[in-house]
Amino acid sequence: MADGNGCGVFTDAAWAVWEPLIEEVRPQGKTPPKELRRTISAIFWRHQNGAKWRSVPAELGPWWLVAQLFIRWAKQGVWERLLDLVQQRGIALGMTFIDGTNIRAHQKAAGAKKGDAIARSEMCARRLAALVAATAPRPA
């Protein structure tokens, strides 16, 4: 999933696998999204690196367009459907380990609203980004 500058764009082979899956679950509007490959790459890059939306590299498109598509699809449940479809097809997701001693909640974090669509989609996008990174060819 990476090119020479490390921005995380789909290779042609990886996009050939992912495009039919994305087309199957994305909402069908009047006009298809422009440069979908670049936008999906930017979304996966952002979730793989844990960066803010404004930190998305310029060569992956305008950050606001990337964020807008992610949020719109999150509210429509596209990311959950894509993750389910990938798992049904038998593509194994990579493993992630988190050391709980490094995670601290703010003292006022106890009353937060739980389980909204965007938070669930963030987790799905992180898992999909890990899958894309795991299936990318390794340099020799």
TrEMBL record:
Residues 11-82 form the Insertion element IS402-like domain. Signal peptide: none annotated. Pfam families: DUF4096. It comes from the Bacteria. InterPro entries: IS402-like_dom, Transposase_6_like. PANTHER family: BLL5188 PROTEIN (PTHR46637:SF1), TIS1421-TRANSPOSASE PROTEIN A (PTHR46637). This is Putative transposase of IS4/5 family.
